[in-house]
Amino acid sequence: MNVIGSDITLERSLAVNKVLRNTFTLLAMTLLFSAITAGVSMALNVSYMVSLVSSVAALGMLWFVIPRTANSSLGLVAVFATTGLLGFGLGPILNHYLALPNGSQLVMTALGGTAVIFLGLAGYALTTRKNFRFMGAFLFVGIMVAFLAGIGAMIFNMPGLSLAVSAMFVLLMSGLILYQVSEIVHGGETNYILATVTLYVSIYNLFTSLLHLLGAFSGDD
To answer: What's the domain range around 143?
Structure first.
């Protein structure tokens, strides 16, 4: 009986390790691909309207395409299409910040901060193996509230609310990283495509939110 139990535990451990390996491999590839598309967008100096269309298209992919293709090979195509569109949409934003007097420093600081936060939180979830599933409902509600508040800040041109939303997203995306890695570790998420998308979106929003906050606090945004 103990042998059977050990075999089941071993199989679960191998399955978790496979999902982790596939997730982080695909995540690295999508981050590289989106960096390339962002570079293309910057070189072409695309407008904010093009950036908005690209981001909306990526949002449509996230909501309607990826959930329906995550269990097939088309899911990989959808993931790269989505992350490529999001990266392309970053072009005008990056050009805006890089045009500032200390723009390069702001962008590099945001990148470094994003990397430190992601690696630190993912490493914590992996090493401690704590279960953060209890955060799921809170994160879902918080992200919806922050998303709607962000739309309101944009429509009504409220810089203060916009900064508050960015701060909220930094906290929420940090929590989402803990939650998603924990879900993989504890077998709650077995689809590496969905796991990759969640972590990518967390990193993307974390970076853009940090960049916005840094720009504002430096007095240049």
So the answer is: 2-217
